[in-house]
Amino acid sequence: MSERIVKPVVNPEGDGTLINVTPESAGWEYVGFQVAKLAKGETLTRESGDQELCVVLLSGFANVSTREHTWDNIGKRMSVFEKIPPYSVYVSTSDQVQITARTELEIAICVAPGKGTYPARLIAPEDVGVEARGYGNLERQIHNILPEQKEADSLLVVEVFTPDGHWSSYPPHKHDRDALPDESLLEETYYFRVQPEQGFAIQRIYTDDRSVDETLAVKNGEVVLVPDGYHPVGAPPGYEVYYLNVMAGPTRTWKFHNDPDHEWLMKK
């Protein structure tokens, strides 16, 4: 199995954490990512420390509180494949977040270095930008949960729905050079869900010199680490593919570079 794939634990213990990516485990500097599943009535608590967090309610309803704010009974979807924007909570540094499940609950916790610039806040579904991107079998649905136009120190968070037989993160692009204004350096995680669950997604990761050139079959619930390279995603016929992206780097801006071999697709 590729070292770029992080599998969920089979029998989660303790606080229900299924996935735990840290900068140390990923071998990079900025992005952390967790997924947890809670039964009704269970509670998960996280300290932010010197990090900022974005807690995304993937499915289910919850009470969420920080040291100064409480949001009761938030949630809007019971499956990501309802394709409606989620509730999320932004948490600043030196804070604590507590999540109590009101139903069966799946959450993602997106993590990156913070400076304490912005206070905790609720990101409601109506605050999430929804757009269709691409054309033909390159079309996909985008939910901009925490884009660069919204307040945060480091985090960029977006979810993407790729219909069966379609491609996304396409044409192939990369953002692995700190070379602004042309390209920004952003580490990235992809958290995949597939419907029906026995399916898979295809993700290719490659660099210009092909020192990295991998094609991954990614299963439901797995995470792919993308520290560098182009990274397109394909959804096989019969299977819808969802992924949640978390990005962070030295500068909070998304400036990508398309693979020149496939740049012509942007001109159609």
TrEMBL record:
Q: What is its EC number?
A: 5.3.1.30
The alphabetical list of record keywords is: Isomerase
Enzyme class, first EC level, given as a word: isomerase
SUPFAM superfamilies listed in its UniProt record: RmlC-like cupins
Molecular function per GO: 5-deoxy-D-glucuronate isomerase activity
Protein's recorded name: 5-deoxy-glucuronate isomerase
Organism encoding this protein: Paenibacillus xylanexedens
